[in-house]
Design goal:
81% of the residues lie in helices and 0% in strands. The protein is built from ten helices and no strands. Helix 3 packs across helix 4.
Length: 284
């Protein structure tokens, strides 16, 4: 027997089956992929818009301490605002997936509405998430090669621990620390399937990532060899490929997280046979 996703109801969950379901549901809502692409772009524009006045003020100052304080304040305000906006976009994508997972009508507009209703909790989460990023960056900058290793491992540990944080915040209405604790608990039972999904999807998209990086490298090569027009074009294409790929990955990952989250909390997602997700969980 197969469900409407084309996945066998007797097939245990693997990265491939979860990705098939995620892609099917993602394609059912027009514009949802665009949210994951527009989020980082909107955050970047907001950061630059807030940073520009601070930079202009800093240029007119003569005191080194004053310049440092203005730049620090500018970066903090702009960084926080950008981080919050990015999480709102991510919350909208996750909200759409959550609605679909229980058979409700979903749209981009409803996703934003749900995200803004949880704005306070998402704001707190964005601050915690940004703080962890800053700490990892400081460790990397201050401790050389060892710092890079510690930062990379710390960043990976954080991504793993916070895997279900957004669905938990949006559904269970918890604060960031309770969401992190709950996410870690859920992940202990879904780790195998979550890891397989992430690795498989990464392998599928590896050629596109390499193509984007190659375009960036070629573009830079031509720019540094006085072929500015061709170099700029190739570099821009590389950026577009990588941004679109990142948005696509982010969206599909959000859907896979929601499917696993629903099943882990006792809710079988609509349109997905329970047997498809059964293999995602360890025997108790």
């Amino acid at each position: 027997m197969t469900n409407f996703t084309g996945v066998s109801a007797r097939t245990p969950a693997t990265g491939r089956e979860l990705l098939k379901v995620s892609l099917h549901q993602m394609k059912a809502v027009p514009g949802v992929v665009a949210l994951a692409v527009l989020g980082p772009l909107a955050a970047a524009v907001l950061f630059l818009g807030l940073a520009a006045p601070g930079l202009a003020i800093a240029v007119g100052l003569t005191s080194g301490l004053s310049i440092l304080l203005v730049l620090a304040l500018t970066l903090v305000v702009g960084g926080i605002a950008a981080a919050v906006l990015l999480v709102v976009f991510q919350g909208a994508v996750t909200s759409v997936a959550l609605r679909q997972s229980i058979g409700e009508h979903a749209s981009v507009r409803q996703g934003f509405s749900d995200s803004f209703r949880s704005f306070g909790r998402l704001f707190q989460w964005s601050l915690v998430n940004a703080t962890v990023g800053v700490v990892m960056g400081l460790i990397s900058d201050r401790a050389g090669a060892l710092g890079d290793i510690v930062s990379a491992l710390g960043g990976l540990a954080w991504k793993i621990a916070s895997y279900f944080a957004l669905p938990v915040i949006l559904v269970e209405k918890t604060g960031p620390f309770d969401a992190l604790k709950r996410s870690s608990q859920l992940l202990r039972t879904t780790w195998g399937s979550a890891a397989r999904t992430t690795v498989r999807f990464g392998l599928i998209l590896l050629p596109f990532a390499l193509a984007g990086i190659a375009l960036l490298a070629l573009g830079w090569h031509f720019i540094t060899n006085d072929s500015d027009a061709l170099g700029a074009t190739l570099f821009a294409l590389g950026v577009v490929v990588l941004v679109m790929m990142a948005g696509f990955v982010s969206t599909v990952t959000a859907y896979a997280q929601v499917l696993l989250y629903r099943f882990a909390t006792g809710v079988t997602p609509k349109g997905v046979s329970p047997e498809v997700l059964q293999g995602a969980f360890r025997a108790k």
